[in-house]
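Thread: Newbie trying to understand structure tokens

Hi all, I'm a second-year student working on a class project, and my supervisor (Dr. K.) asked me to get a predicted structure for one chain before our next meeting. I've only ever worked with sequences, so writing a 3D structure as a token string is new to me. If someone could post the tokens and maybe explain what I'm looking at, I'd be very grateful. Here's the chain:
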Amino acid sequence: MLQAIKGDKVLWGILALLAIFSFLPVFSASSNLAYVVGRGTPWGYLIKHFVILSIGFVLMFSVHKIPYNYFKGISILMLPVVVLLLVYTASQGKVIDGANASRWIRIPFIGLSFQTSTLASVVCMVYTATFFSNYKDQLGSFKNSLIRLWLPIFIVVLLIFPSNLSTAALLFLMVLIVSFVAGYPIKYLLAICGAGLIAVLLFFLLVKAFPGVFPNRVDTWMSRVENFRSGESADGNYQIERAKTAIVTGKIFGVGAGKSRMKNFLPQSSSDFIYAIIVEEFGLIGGIGLIILYLLLLFRIVVISFKATDVFGKLVVIGLGIPIIFQAFINMGVALQILPVTGQTLPMISSGGTSAWMTCIAMGIILSVSIKKELIQEELVDENSNESNPISILSEA
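---
Reply by user tm_fold:
Sure, no problem. This is what the structure looks like when written as tokens:
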């Protein structure tokens, strides 16, 4: 079985460590849902988490066996599918406390909710890398990139934006970063940033002028930023206060696995604020250890990108890998009150659903890129061994 696993072994090891460690905090924090909310049991949530991660690793294994160049065509085919899924998601009109909550669609038969923006992010990053690898000699043509790249990216971002600001902003930022790395002219990037800023300002003006036309989350975003700036213990800041209490309680060594008290008072203890529970139970040592694992993950992503043999490989690794690291540090920054509440989960750790599968698929593509380098090295070793082997020389003669 181990012989079938190819690609960067260190990356495989880091992902396995994150997944194995996740069972402890998820099992502990899910008691909030079981005993406070009164829904399910801790063992049920643990089994669900195990099944989701198991399927995720199967997806990762399957994807890493596919030659990564195939994802060029897949991203082009999937882009219109993603747009249709986002349109369908947005058209559901789900509202929670007056705010737009149209982020998920229900998957028939299996009973899981699918967050379409996670699929859209993966497809858009692969599509961006595909564009720059196919048109690397035509980057001076703004019109070409405007139609082929920025128009579909803007459509996807604008469909995500009303219900999920943080995901839309992270996706747009990563497209800009990949564009910069690919050598896209700075003046064009500035023009795209200006167009994005105008679109956001226009959205806010329309919301304020016609507040009842369509559901939005503007008031939620503004209250979160205001609570973050003021530091007051308002209703919107309740989770932050509980998270800070959990972190302070953990001290150096923590209170012990499963012994968190604040998990019973933190509504999103098993997802958005799971880092606070980790620090409470495993202390500063556990919190820093987790940060080190994500930094090692970042290091391997940079190494794989550097060693990639073509432009597409380099860009797709950056485009798929860096957002996972950003998401992790955004999640931890929210728990530490360095950032306002965003709703971003902790990759490979938080309990959830299909978002973990998208992370595994992204990692599978990155591992597929790392396999290409291994194959080239194996071919070089075989050639050198054949050249130095007199029997093989005689046989060739």
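A couple of things are worth pointing out once you decode it. Confidence is low (pLDDT under 50) at residues 96-100, 391-397. Residues 2-385 form one domain. Feel free to ask follow-ups in this thread.
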